[in-house]
Structures are given as structure tokens and as C-alpha cells.
Specification:
This protein is mainly alpha-helical and 311 residues long. It has one domain. Helix content is 72%, strand content 1%. The protein contains 17 helices and two strands. The chain has a two-stranded antiparallel sheet with strand order 1-2. The chain is globular, with a radius of gyration of 20 Å. It starts with a helix and ends in a 6-residue tail after the last helix.
């Protein structure tokens, strides 16, 4: 069930083009914008070399095939990269407006709220931890703090719309349950335990090599990549990327099975910056990762062209 911004943009363009053409146009334009901001953002913070490598890894990530399709990936990535770029430029109002649109594009757009608040806190109070209570009180008196409520306002308005139209504030969650009753929330340790229970109780000859590969390598592997990325940014004390990755890691760890995690993580661009940074002086590692992405990328193209499940 799509959040409203993506369908709304398609609806607007459909006055001039067909619905299908409009969907592809929204995704294509959004992806172009996302690459523009991604390059500006990474070049500003890490240099042109890391920017080029990060974009290459993003382009050949196995589920990057969804960017030009009629999915929200391209639009959300465009909003996400623009948000982090303007946050770094300290253009607070622009950032929260973009955050508002992100929160009506995907549910994880709400995670930009704590990222914004953390950025605001560190910007106004560089020695924030010396007197936390005093600094928080001072922050409450700044207009930039009150700007932050624009971000969750998007999700709140959408919840109100769901309530008045469908009688359920969280119908976007209920709708997913109706689409697939296999998704349940459980404690993270239970999620990981159940992953291995599936493999132990269902040998390869029963569920197939591809399903086994998909469960253990693609889905769980994507989650582990996100988890390692989160740890990296925490160690590096890059708190804005760290908190965004951490919140996504926590969310995914509560969902079983982690179906489509490989698609969800493609928009979490700090993953690609992380991979570029750790391979900066190890070209062979970078090209090995790129080769693996390349093979899986074209394998996914084959699967989706035959109507198989990819993400």
C-alpha cells in the first residue's frame, strides 16, 4: 500500500500522460534528482572519489532495478538525499519541508525527525554533552526546533485521512497484513532464531536452492550489511547516518520474515558510502563487491522478467 505522495504525483502527470507512463516518469525524474543530490552530498563530506564509488555501488546493487520501475524507491531516495544535503547546509526549513514529503512517501520517513533534532542539537551546542539539560531547554526556545514538527505532520495527516476514509488510523499497516499474513512482529532474537529454524526444518531439496539462498544470503545478508553499516557509523561518531541506519535496523529486526529487506535497504545510501570508505585503499575488495552486485543485479533482472519474486 503506497503512501500518498507517489500516487499523487502520478495522478498529476496522468492529466498529460497515461498512468503507466506517468509512473515511469516520476521514478525516472526522481532517480535523476537523487543521483544529483547524492553526488553533491558525498562529494561535500567525503570527496569526489568516494562519491563516484558510492554511486557505482548503488547503481549495481541487486535491487537497484526497482529505481526506474513504478515503486517508491526513486522518489524516497531523492527526498532522503536532498534532506541530508540541506541538513548539512543548515537550511533547516528546507530540510523539514523535504522531511514532510518523505514522511508521506514511506513510513520510515518519520526517522528523519530524530535525525533533524540531533543535527540541530549538535549545531547549536557543539559541546552538547557538557550540560545536556540546559542545552535542551535552550533548544526549545529556538524556532528551528519548532520547525521539526513539520516532519511528523505528514504522517499524522495521512493517518487522519486513513481514519476518516477507512476508519483506521493505521490502515497502511492493516493493508499490508491483508496482503501477506506471514509478516509478524517479534523480538529480534526470535526473528534470527526463526530464520535458522526454517532452514533446519526445511532442507534445500524441499524449499529449493533459490529460496534457501534468498533467505540466508539475500534477505539476512542485506540485514547484516545494514547492521554492520550502523556499527561503523556509530564507531565513526557520524551520528546522523548512525541514528538513521540504527532505526531502520531496529525496525527490520522486529519483522519476520524479513521479506523484501534487500529492496528496502537500497535507499539507505550510507551503506554505499560505508562500502566505499572501507575499500578506499583496497581496490580488489571494491571490485569483488561490485562483481557480486553485478551478478545478482542481472540475476534479478532475469527473475523479474520471468515474473518471479525479487523483493
Amino acid at each position: 500500500m503506497f503512501f500518498p505522495l507517489y500516487p499523487l504525483l502520478i495522478k498529476i502527470l496522468s492529466f498529460f500522460f497515461s498512468f503507466i507512463t506517468s509512473g515511469f516518469l516520476v521514478s525516472f525524474i526522481s532517480f535523476s534528482i537523487s543521483l544529483y543530490y547524492l553526488d553533491k552530498l558525498i562529494t561535500r563530506d567525503f570527496g569526489e572519489f568516494i562519491s563516484k564509488r558510492s554511486i557505482i555501488l548503488l547503481l549495481f546493487f541487486p535491487t537497484a532495478i526497482f529505481f526506474p520501475l513504478i515503486y517508491t524507491e526513486a522518489l524516497f531516495l531523492a527526498l532522503l538525499t536532498a534532506f541530508f544535503y540541506y541538513l548539512g547546509e543548515k537550511k533547516w526549513l528546507v530540510a523539514v519541508i523535504i522531511g514532510f514529503f518523505a514522511s508521506i512517501t514511506r513510513n520510515i520517513g518519520i526517522f528523519l525527525w530524530p535525525v533533524y533534532l540531533l543535527s540541530l542539537f549538535f549545531n547549536f551546542f557543539p559541546n552538547s554533552w557538557k550540560d545536556v539539560y540546559k542545552n535542551i531547554c535552550a533548544l526549545l526556545r529556538k524556532k528551528e526546533f519548532w520547525y521539526s514538527f513539520i516532519i511528523p505532520l505528514g504522517l499524522f495527516v495521512y493517518c487522519l485521512y486513513c481514519y476518516f476514509v477507512l476508519g483506521d488510523f493505521l490502515s497502511f499497516i492493516s493493508g499490508q497484513k491483508n496482503w501477506s499474513d506471514t509478516h509478524v512482529f517479534m523480538w529480534p532474537w526470535e526473528t534470527l532464531k526463526n530464520f535458522f529454524v526454517i532452514i533446519i526444518n526445511n532442507p534445500i531439496d524441499k524449499i529449493g536452492i533459490y529460496n534457501t539462498f534468498g533467505i540466508l544470503f539475500i534477505e539476512l545478508g542485506s540485514f547484516m550489511l545494514l547492521s554492520i553499516t550502523t556499527i561503523y557509523w556509530i564507531i565513526k561518531k557520524h551520528w546522523f547516518y548512525a541514528i538513521f541506519c540504527l532505526l531502520n535496523t531496529i525496525l527490520f529486526s522486529f519483522i519476520f520474515p524479513m521479506t523484501s529487506v534487500n529492496r528496502y535497504v537500497v535507499v539507505i545510501f550510507p551503506i554505499f558510502i560505508f562500502l566505499s570508505l572501507i575499500t578506499k585503499k583496497r581496490d580488489w575488495v571494491f571490485y569483488t563487491i561490485l562483481a557480486l552486485f553485478f551478478v545478482l543485479f542481472f540475476f534479478n533482472i532475469y527473475l523479474i522478467s520471468t515474473g518471479s519474486w525479487v523483493g
